[in-house]
Amino acid sequence: GITVQGIFMKRQLEVSEIFARVICVEILHIKAIWTAIFNGRLSKNFYAMLRAHTLVFTEKLLVEIESLAVVAMGSQKFLQMKEDIARKVMDKIPDVIDSSYQYTQEALDMEATIREKMKALPPEDFEGVLHPAFEEDEIQLIVLGGVLGAIVGVIQIFTLFS
Prior knowledge:
The protein has helices at 7-10, 12-27, 30-39, 43-62, 66-73, 75-98, 101-108, 110-119, 123-135, 138-160. By secondary structure, it is mostly helical. Helix 2 (12-27) packs antiparallel against helix 8 (110-119).
């Protein structure tokens, strides 16, 4: 049988590299990910989880002196101190994360991961990844292809029969 592939399928390796670069520079860059974590619709979940882990971490750090601290401060002030620590961590984490963008980008190397995974996709799956990116303009691409084909056909007719 004859296999007919589109230009993206024939150039899957090159398209995978460009697609990965565009995705990681324009959409899935580290700053955008952290912005979504800090401000997105699930940010409350992130901050609740961060608070809980901070409280546990603080508890583990203070386990040796907790009874002494409770006696000296009182249990309410001790609990309030742990909550204050958690609040300060939640308030400061965006600033701390800001200075880690470069390191996180290099450590995760998402561009390489996306590129390699896309290169390894079977053609049907590769098309499935790209298709949504072009779906919005699909009709325009088809019409443009038809118009260009007609123009080339007219030029060939005049060239051959002139």
